[in-house]
Amino acid sequence: MEAVTLLDLGPIIAAVLGPMMAFVVVSMRYQHKESIKTREMISDNRSLIEQSRRENRELIEQSSRENRELIERVDDKLIAELAEHRQLSERRHQEVVRSLVEARERLARIEGHLRIWTPPPHEHETDDESKVA
Q1: Residues 111, 118: contact at Cβ < 8 Å?
Q2: CA 9 to each of CA 5, 14, 30: distance values in angstroms, whole numbers, following the listed order
Q3: Using CA atoms, how far apart are residues 114 and 59, in angstroms rounded to an integer?
């Protein structure tokens, strides 16, 4: 058996390790390029995210302003409608009061014509108290 020297194994080692080393170098280079692309994409995405945040804030502020304006308009409209309703209610109340006054006057005239006299107020109180007891 002959002794094999390191020089004899050199071509075999180079044949095995050479492609492995080439693969490692190419793989490292590929990973480096991909990491650069990833960093660029992350940077772009950060700027897009920041821009969208700003736009969202602006849209939220704008919609809040619009909502406040709509609420104020509706409030103003409701206040105006409420005022109209109060005026209408007051007019109708006055009409009812006038009608009641007229009915009392007519009833008083009818009672006077028929000579029906209403009892004095103190008699009403005694009648009510006797009914309760």
Answers
A1: yes
A2: 7, 8, 31
A3: 80
> How far apart (Å, rounded) are the C-alpha atoms in residues 50 and 52?
5
Mean pLDDT of the chain: 88
Question: Can you tell me the distance from the alpha carbon of 55 to that of 110, in angstroms, rounded to the nearest whole number?
Answer: 81
Give pTM, 2 decimals: 0.44
Q: What's the rounded Cα separation, in Å, for the pair 100 and 118? A: 18
- The token pair at 43 is 């940077």
List, for residues 56-106, the tens digit of each pLDDT value. Answer: 999 999 999 999 999 999 998 999 999 999 999 999 999 999 999 999 999
